[in-house]
Amino acid sequence: MTIELVGVIGAGVMGCGVAQNLAQAGLKVILVDISEAQLQHAQQTIVRSLRLARMLQKTAFSGTVNDCMERISLTTEYEALQQVEFLIENITEKWEMKKSIYPEIDRICPASCVFAVNTSAISITRLASLTNRADRVIGTHFMNPVPLKQTVEVIRGYHTSEETLQITQELLQSLGKKWVVVQDMPGFVSNRVLMLTINEAIFLLQDQVASPEDIDRIFKECFGHPMGPLETADLIGLDTILYSIEVLYEAYNDSKYRPCPLLKKMVDAGLYGRKNGRGFYTYTAN
């Protein structure tokens, strides 16, 4: 099955990266968000990212930046998704927000359309139960920044069919991605480990064991990680980190997933990381 038109819901950091990657690969994209302001910001973000990629030759794509942008349609209307062949949902990691849209898009999108949930923790099976196409719902946990990350964590829900898995793999291959298929348990593989690491690193900071710079330096210089856990948290977004670890805490009822009070405090203070300029580090606008 050749996919030509992909719907992308959510024009935040991940949605922008997914839409950009799809357009770079020559696919047409309908990018949906409830906010016109967020869509305009997304457009500016994608243009800036494409220009930077071309300048640094970090990613390959045919044509010009304008050619890529012409493949992306921006809208606040879910009804625009009536003809999409594949849909990637990227909204905030909150069950109450995610669950509200699945019955709606299930009504609007073609019965043959695959729903790919770009989530780091929420159950694919649970979201699939909100639709009449549970066999065509799958998890695709893209990593940030999407155009630069080569591998995607693909999650099989309880009812996910072999056909859906194959369609998803073919789409990822067209994007130049590799994948690892895992089973549906909250947090999957990556975030059951990563969120614990980040959360414990924040406890280290709260307990004044070391500075953010030194915590990250140990991971980079001793273990060879390209980024430390606090730098990674800033890249993902501290609000997203908190939402994800709260999902894990609720899902497993295990105290090891208790969110660090400092993380909660920083999110309450609006310190989200790179997305708004200040988290464990301070960032200047591009």
UniProtKB/TrEMBL annotation:
Chain sites annotated for binding NAD(+): G10, A11, G12, V13, M14, G15, D33, E93, K98, S120, N144, K275
Presence of the UniProt keyword Thylakoid in the record: no
Pathway stated in the Swiss-Prot or TrEMBL entry: Lipid metabolism; butanoate metabolism
UniProt GO molecular function: NAD+ binding; oxidoreductase activity, acting on the CH-OH group of donors, NAD or NADP as acceptor
Cytoplasm in keyword set: no
Domain (3-hydroxyacyl-CoA dehydrogenase C-terminal): residue spans on this chain: 187-283
PANTHER family in the cross-refs: 3-HYDROXYACYL-COA DEHYDROGENASE FAMILY PROTEIN, 3-HYDROXYBUTYRYL-COA DEHYDROGENASE
This protein's name: 3-hydroxybutyryl-CoA dehydrogenase
